[in-house]
Amino acid sequence: MGRYGEDLAARWLTAHGMRILDRNWRCRFGEIDIVAADADAFVVCEVKTRRAGPYEHPMAAITPTKARRLGLLAEHWTAAHGGPPPGGVRIDVIGVQLPARGAPVVSHVRGVT
C-alpha cells in the first residue's frame, strides 16, 4: 500500500511541474520517500497512505518529531548531493487516501516546516 501511495505521489508531483530526483533515499537517520525539484528548490516529500475509513487523515501522522527528522534528513540529502540549490529546500507532505470505491484522493501540503 505504501509503495502504491508513493507511486501516486510521484505522478502527482510530475503532473504539477516537478521533477523527481530521488526516491526512497536512506541514511542512518531514516528515509526520504521522494526528493523533487520545483523550479530552483529541492522538495523533500513525506508520503503517507491510508485506506479511507474511521482512521485519522494521513497528514495527522506527521508529528513535530517526524517534522524535525525530515529536516535532518533534508540536510543530509543536500550535503550528499552538492549542497542546497539557490531556491533552498522545502519539506512537503503528501497524503493519499484510498477509498473503498473510486479514485484515490491525493492531498499536498507545501512547506510543513
From TrEMBL:
Tree of life domain: Bacteria
Family affiliation: Belongs to the UPF0102 family.
Protein's UniProt name: UPF0102 protein ACFP4F_02695
SUPFAM superfamilies named in the record: Restriction endonuclease-like
Pfam families: UPF0102 (PF02021)
